[in-house]
Amino acid sequence: MRQELIFRLARINDIGDLIELQRRAMRALAASAYPEAQIDAFAAHLSASTNALVFAGRLHLAERDGEIVACG
Q: Mind listing the pLDDT tens digit for each residue in 47-69?
């Protein structure tokens, strides 16, 4: 049985998983509109913005069964 989604503020120890989730999403969603090199260049800057949002207490996430499935 699937657990329900849990919504919470992102924590410092979530940063690595959040960045990986964002990179996978970016590659999947932008592949038809941008060349791979452009996607890679943008993805390289995700850690700075993700870190800033987490440290400011402004990034929320959703998790299911202990896995982060969304953030914003």
A: 999 999 999 999 999 999 999 99
